[in-house]
Inverse folding.
């Protein structure tokens, strides 16, 4: 009986555990020496903007036979097809395969194990209850036999007239009490059997419910021959991760002519890959692993003469990129990219040939693209658990060289704005990102740091200074006729009020119109104003040819009200008196010029209070 109950218990426990996959290391005598459930650690992580490359370090035992190394618990965010293995010299990787398996989470695995233990205990209790019930039933049968035996003896004694009344009474009382006691015990055991049966059913339902939550995970099987053993690196990519930069720019004014700056660079990370990165070497990268590495190819521009510009434009776009016959071994995306860029730039060049202005500035379409070839290694090993909340990691802090200037533009604002012309001296490229700006430890506001190459200059706004105010006044407009032309002389006054008790150096900005080549318009800045223009080589190269005027001035202390600082200048414009002045695609041209100056393609950079590069 005991052996039967034991076997039944073992079979039932095996049923309860049959849902839970059990890894068993099996020694093989065929091609592969062994299947090993590997003990590995995540050694390093390269975190890209929207994915990560994870490297696990695995110690391979020395063997001249082919070994199969099993890597378990790949996260659910594993990117299919991204796994590969490398190892030290002397070892040879034969293959790396990733397989999909059904599995439970570690928490659910523990729940199943606990329920299986409870199931086994319930089965033992049920078996004991059934055995006790059987014994009680046998005791009742024995008791009934004793009652029958006693009844026969009593009849025999009556026949002989030797009945012992006291003994019969005692025996009757005993059998009645014993029957009641056994009936109560039997009832209790039957109730226990019912309760245990229900508990077992609930336990089975709980186990099956948990197994219905089984998810799909991935495992890797690496075949390697390593006569001397040693480390093997298993690499793969995961999704649901990424990072973005966050900057803090701090400026401290030492005096009106000198300031010092610092740049704090932090990474705001998303790490929801499903696996914890514990004590890893972390590298932040701006690269895109699937970015095309080929440079765009420049094609010839062939032109001809047609009845209208529309005909040439039609011929130019008659062959769409998706109609090209692309060799099967070529990257189709690269072909589409290059043909599209050549077509768009070709149309711009045709427009230049047909109607050119004195100054035309343009940049390629990818000028505003972010830095895509920089990496930032975190100095110390770090722990980054997988969780939904963002995590912040300090990357670097550096001192930057630069100047803090007051920029006054009466056409655009009534106040002076503080701007710092900084140079990226940290030795690495900077990716674009939001920046908190402080001046003298006072929070000024937020701006955007542009993508900046190492050694490149960029501009950061430090907000307005309400103690330096300005306005623009038209003093006079004198019109006269010279031959067939109309000449207009305009005189302006730029007023600057300085409420500081110290001298303030400023950059005073204004503009005169820029005439197109195909219009008979002559614009002349008065000699005295032209002679006072800034001598900054970058300004003279990039802004002066476009009609932007800049004077570098010093505004004395306490100059406001009737004593405000006045700067006056004049220019003349002459054109055919039968015509009137209109804007030449004004909004379109302004958008183009603004993009040129602020997208990083060699422009001067900088908006009012914003960031730019130059």
């Amino acid at each position: 009986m005991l052996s039967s109950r034991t076997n039944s218990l073992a079979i039932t426990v095996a049923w309860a555990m049959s849902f839970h996959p059990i890894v068993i290391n099996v020694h093989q005598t065929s091609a592969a020496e062994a299947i090993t459930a590997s003990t590995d650690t995540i050694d390093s992580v390269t975190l890209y903007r929207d994915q990560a490359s994870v490297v696990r370090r695995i110690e391979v035992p020395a063997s001249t036979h082919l070994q199969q190394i099993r890597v378990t618990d790949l996260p659910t965010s594993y990117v299919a097809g991204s796994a590969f293995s490398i190892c030290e010299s002397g070892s040879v990787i034969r293959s790396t395969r990733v397989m999909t398996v059904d599995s439970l989470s570690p928490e659910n695995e523990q729940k199943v194990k606990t329920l299986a233990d409870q199931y086994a205990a319930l089965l033992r209790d049920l078996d004991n209850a059934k055995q006790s019930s059987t014994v009680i039933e046998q005791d009742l049968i024995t008791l009934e036999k004793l009652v029958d035996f006693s009844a026969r003896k009593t009849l025999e004694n009556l026949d002989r007239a030797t009945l012992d009344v006291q003994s019969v009474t005692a025996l009757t009382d005993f059998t009645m009490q014993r029957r009641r006691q056994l009936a109560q015990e039997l009832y209790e055991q039957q109730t226990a059997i019912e309760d245990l049966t229900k508990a077992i059913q609930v336990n089975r339902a709980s186990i099956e419910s948990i197994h219905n939550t089984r998810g799909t995970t991935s495992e890797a099987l690496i075949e390697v021959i390593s006569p001397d053993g040693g480390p093997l690196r298993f690499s793969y990519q995961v999704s649901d991760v990424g990072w973005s930069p966050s900057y803090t720019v701090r400026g401290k004014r030492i005096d009106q002519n000198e300031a010092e700056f610092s740049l704090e660079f932090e990474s705001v990370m998303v790490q929801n890959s499903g696996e914890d990165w514990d004590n890893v070497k972390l590298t932040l990268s701006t690269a895109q692993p699937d970015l095309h590495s080929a440079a765009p190819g420049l094609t010839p521009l062939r032109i001809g003469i047609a009845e209208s510009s529309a005909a040439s434009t039609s011929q130019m776009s008659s062959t769409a990129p998706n109609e090209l016959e692309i060799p099967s071994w070529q990257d189709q995306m690269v072909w589409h990219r290059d043909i599209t860029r050549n077509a768009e730039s070709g149309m711009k060049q045709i427009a230049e040939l047909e109607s050119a202005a004195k100054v035309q500035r343009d940049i390629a379409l990818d000028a505003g693209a972010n830095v895509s070839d920089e990496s930032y290694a975190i100095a110390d090993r770090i722990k980054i658990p997988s969780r939904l909340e963002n995590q912040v990691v300090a990357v670097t802090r550096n001192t930057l060289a630069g100047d803090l200037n007051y920029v006054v533009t009466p056409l655009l604002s009534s106040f002076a704005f503080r701007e710092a012309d900084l140079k990226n001296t940290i030795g690495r490229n900077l990716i674009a990102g939001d920046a908190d700006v402080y001046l003298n430890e006072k929070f000024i506001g937020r701006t955007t740091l542009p993508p900046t190459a190492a050694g490149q200059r960029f501009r950061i706004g430090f907000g307005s200074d309400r103690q330096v105010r300005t306005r623009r006044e038209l003093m006079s407009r004198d019109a006269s006729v010279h031959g067939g032309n109309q000449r207009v002389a305009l005189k302006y006054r730029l007023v600057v009020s300085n409420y500081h008790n110290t001298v303030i150096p400023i950059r005073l900005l204004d503009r005169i119109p820029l005439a197109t080549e195909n219009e008979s318009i002559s614009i002349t800045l008065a000699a005295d104003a032209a002679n006072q223009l800034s001598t900054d080589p970058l300004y003279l190269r990039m802004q002066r040819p476009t009609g932007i005027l800049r004077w570098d001035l010093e505004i004395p202390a306490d100059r406001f009200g009737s004593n405000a600082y006045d700067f006056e200048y004049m220019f003349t414009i002459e054109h055919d008196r039968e015509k009137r002045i209109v804007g030449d695609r004004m909004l379109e041209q302004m958008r183009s010029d603004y993009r040129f100056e602020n997208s990083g393609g060699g422009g001067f950079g900088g908006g009012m209070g914003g960031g730019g590069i130059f």
The mean pLDDT is 79. The radius of gyration is 44 Å.
